[in-house]
Amino acid sequence: MQQPQQPVLRDIVLVGGGHSHVGVLRRFAMRPEPGVRLTLICRDSHTPYSGMLPGYIAGHYAYDEVHIDLRRLAEYAGARFLRDEAIGIDHEGQRVLCRARPPVPYDQLSINIGSTPRVDTVTGAGEHAVPVKPIHRFDDRWQTLLERVIHHPGTTRIAVVGGGAGGVELLLAMQHRLRGELADRGRDPDELAFALFTRGEAFLPTHNARVRANFRDHLRARGVAVHTGTDITAVDAGRLQDADGSWHEADEIVWVTNAGGAGWLRDTRLELDDDGFIKVGDTLQSLSDPRIFAAGDIAHQVNHPREKAGVFAVRQGRPLADNLRAAVTGRPLKPYRPQARWLALIGTGDRHAVASRGELCLAGDWVWRWKNWIDRRFMARFNDLPPMAEDTGRARAPSRVALDEEENAQAISAIAMRCGGCGAKVGATTLSRALSTLQPVAREDVLVGLHAPDDAAVVRVPPGKAMVHTVDFFRAFIDDPYVFGKVAANHALGDIFAMGAEAQTATAVATVPQGLEVKVEDTVFQMMAGAVEVLNAAGCALVGGHTGEGQELALGFAVNGLIDAEGDAALSDSILTKGGLRPGQALILTKPIGTGTLFAAHARLGAKGRWIDAALESMCLSNREAATCLREHGATACTDLTGFGLLGHLVEMTRPSGVDAELDLAALPILGGAEETVAAGILSSLQPANVRLRRALRDQASWVGHPRYPLLFDPQTAGGLLAGVPAERVEACLAALHAQGYPQAAIIGRVLDAGEALEPIVLRE
After folding, report:
1. pLDDT of 730 above 90
2. pTM for this predicted structure
3. Range 740-745 average pLDDT
4. Could you tell me the pLDDT band of residue 43, with boundaries at 50, 70 and 90?
5. For residues 361 and 211, is the Cβ–Cβ distance under 8 A?
């Protein structure tokens, strides 16, 4: 018999995807702690490595070379990745408050979010300057600035405020890149004028005189105007003002100074320094809350204050991981003392660099090559992940987590042989607590609903309406229960909308892995909170359900919908069936395809985080407005794309309609990355069954080698609607879909008269 999985006993939550936290994830990936679940909360799936960011700005590296794929790394570490942003801490409830999802409980919490620009301390800086921190958001701003400079006619004056290593290195990288961009376009690179502003009497104040002299020569040779002893007190459109009241002209202003802690930390009980950074002791624990750790720029190690530099965040990864592990297992924590001196390798933008450490100063192209070798080796640790053994021992290794008596009893029960039948239900108390705060939409036709203590819901079917009924159920394919709940609800509602009905009520069926009651309760709450959010937006009331224990998280819904049925004619006109296609119609698909291959790749660490982000965004997009739009533009047949894939669902439409269809492979909307994962041979486990429908393709053999051919069989989850729309109304329909939030909706083919051939589907491109 297969051994049961280790239940979740403790939660370590990591807020932010900084250099320390990527180190924590990797160390837990190499040596998991049984019973301990890691959760990473981060707004972005890709985090930049600060050491290579100037090289990226200078044009020496591509995006993926300087970014760590956090979603992929989390998957590798067996951690949950929650794409959101922390905005507060509930200390009593031990929960992280998030911007766009329910709070996330923790047993131990670690914060590694870097610093935040304090542009609000200088009048106009927030409106007219481009802050470089937090660096994970800088790329969008840099791309915008790059476009503005390239398309700005004549002279462009660029000011960088901040004379530390970050400001100097960034200025030189920007100058190198922008001069090259202008030269490539046949423009004079000398149209660019750069200036550096720093309040100190010298730039690079933490480095030795030889390093400063070296960079002084570089800046002079590159024509950069250096303004030392200049405290910028105001920023206006196209200019900066210093403390003596004089103004300096600048078309673009980049802010590399005055960074502090995130504003939301001030509303917590954490003890902060004057700049808003979290005060921590030698074990990296907050001075005011020992359950909370901090590392990187956001942390101020009170006994060992150091400059804000990436080297410290990198070095803190190991002691932070070790102390988090010790905290959940009840072992003593170890102090960490950062080095007093460190090596800084500062680039000049042109594949040249300067090495600085204490009184050391070395410079040359070879230093840049040395820096490049160090940086690439660091990045390889997180992007070139070694294969993990099939059996890592996670299931059978005994847990070292420190538990109280009640928790220990629950843990023993969770890994013991479980009952079947009604004995496999989630406990009533646990379930009632999890569902107590959910607020299903109120409907007058729901007579007995979710919060009534009865055996079943009672729902009235209004006069003149007929009921549309469907059911869907599947196991989780993503480790975020809240997002999974949203996708599962959207998927189940798709059939209702495709039929032209409005959703009325839903009954849930869920399976949740066993564990400590508090962990089961939160999983149910997170999942159902996401589902209810989607159901409520659709006007669909959750009226009840069943939750049981199982090895994997799973969720499904039986959904009732209502459709006009005053008479047989009205009912016939109201229902959109698969059999309503008419020759001459255009085929519209409202969402891109590719979810099957992408999530198969995600499970194998073969998908980029941004591909999964985009796929989830598409899957969380409701089909409700799309269905209304299609009906308003004369659609006569419709279905939602799910497990049978595009070809399977189109065949289901052509057969009862008595028509053939033509698909334009070039016009198919495809999710980013799906063509790459298909080309790599990564396919959904359902793909082979779907491929059997290839016999429906005319001249099928000639299309097998087409790169998009496998995507015809790719099973979809919460896919778009496929509909037949009159040709004369299709352009207006497409424009309306785009305006209503379906940007990738496309005309993918047309409906043909039935021909003599047995195969109903013709391909073209």
Report:
1. yes
2. 0.93
3. 97
4. very high
5. yes
Question: How far is Cα 548 from Cα 425, in angstroms, rounded to an integer?
Answer: 4
Residue 5 host element (H or E): none
Catalytic residue among 42, 419, 422, 629: 422
540 is catalytic: no
Mean pLDDT of the chain: 92
Q: At residue 513, what is the residue type?
A: P
Question: Closest by alpha carbon to 410, among 35, 103, 106?
Answer: 35
Domain end marker among 543, 569, 595 = 569
Query: Token digits for 390?
Result: 């099939």
Picking from 524, 553, 569, the residue at the C-terminal end of a domain is 569
In a domain, 405, yes or no: no
The secondary structure of 468-513 as a DSSP string is EEEEEEEE-SSS-HHHHHHHHHHHHHHHHHHTTPEEEEEEEEEEE-
Residue 347 and residue 236 share a domain: yes
Count of the separate structural domains present in the chain = 4
Residue 399 lies inside a defined structural domain of this protein: no
CATH number at residue 311: 3.50.50.60
Structural domain boundaries, residue 455: 422-569
Rounded Cα–Cα distance for residues 571 and 307 (Å): 72
Per this entry, what is the length of the chain? 765
Q: What is the pLDDT of residue 340?
A: 84
Asked if the model's pLDDT at residue 667 lies above 70, the reply is yes
Task: Tell me what pLDDT residue 2 has.
Answer: 35
Structural Rg of the chain based on CA atoms: 29
Model confidence at 623: pLDDT above 50? yes
